[in-house]
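tokens incoming
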């Protein structure tokens, strides 16, 4: 599902944002803004998207079939699996990092 592009800001909104940007953190009054404590409804990655680069990779056909068996988005699934392996490897001690 494609997201619609953001609406252009009104002149008053741009003026308010510029005024806030000119202030330091300590000058901004957050008194009437409630603190968010429950993040259960938050959408991960809604506003942040890491840069993507097209690559060519050769995978075994059974691996591709397995990824595609989950439906659309098999490349995204492959990216998530590789990211998980990368983060697990970063967390591992140096001696365990050798593969092969």
């Amino acid at each position: 599902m494609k997201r619609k592009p953001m609406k252009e800001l009104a002149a008053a909104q741009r003026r308010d944002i510029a005024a806030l940007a000119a202030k330091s953190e300590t000058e901004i009054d957050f008194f009437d803004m409630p603190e968010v404590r429950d993040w259960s409804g938050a959408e991960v990655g809604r506003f942040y998207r890491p840069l993507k680069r097209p690559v060519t990779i050769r995978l075994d056909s059974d691996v591709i079939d397995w990824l595609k068996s989950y439906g659309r988005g098999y490349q995204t699934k492959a990216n998530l699996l590789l990211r998980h392996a990368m983060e697990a490897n970063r967390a591992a001690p140096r001696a365990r990092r050798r593969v092969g």
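note: DSSP finds three helices and no strands in the chain.
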